[in-house]
Amino acid sequence: MTSKTCAKCGESKPTTDFFKDCSRRDGLSSRCKPCKNASNKDYRDANLEKVKAKQLEWHKANRDTQLKKMREYCRANREALKDYRAQYYANNKERFSERSAKWREKQGPEALAKRSRVYYERKSEQIQERVREYRKANPHKVNAFRRQYEDKLRKATPPWADMRAIRALYEQATLLTQATGIKHHVDHVHPLQGKTFSGLHVHYNLAVVTAEENLRKSNKPTPQVKQLLDGVVLAASENTHE
Ligand SMILES: [Zn+2]
Known about the structure:
By secondary structure, the protein is mainly alpha-helical.
């Protein structure tokens, strides 16, 4: 048997156009797929609540086996799924970035900072490896970043900055790194480009910290730092009157 007549539309169709139904003698549904789908849809539309409740019940009863099946499928098709996701992302890039912007706005800056901190702690080795690879592959970009940073430092350095005190702190960081084997940075206690106001490249705004502490830091100035910086500005204005 290669064809069958649909009980609903009366057309003769190939047997592949019929769903399997083991309760029937020939093992096929009496109606063709389009007819069956249409009547299923009619039923669903007419009994929305009932269908939903039944689906939920089925889902609850089969949750574990379904999850297991899904995990197995993902494991067996890892590469194909990766390609599929990449393709899907590429096709829907704008929608994704819109959604992500909305999400970031909803989270707020503090929650985002915390998330990135947790992420960094969990993945610090992989991240550092990726940074190394990036630096190796993009020396011109790395140089441009460095120049940009040096320029930022220059602009944040007031004429009365104590350059010897600043250099001493950088030397201290190097020595500590060598002595402990833990990477130490010189950190701007109040960042050079803060959200509310910008810190200065002066020795009282510098602190020798481990790389980890540097990452942990929030972008907000502590009251002490704020006071200190206000003092710095005051000292600068006094200097000009001398
Ligand atoms: Zn039909």
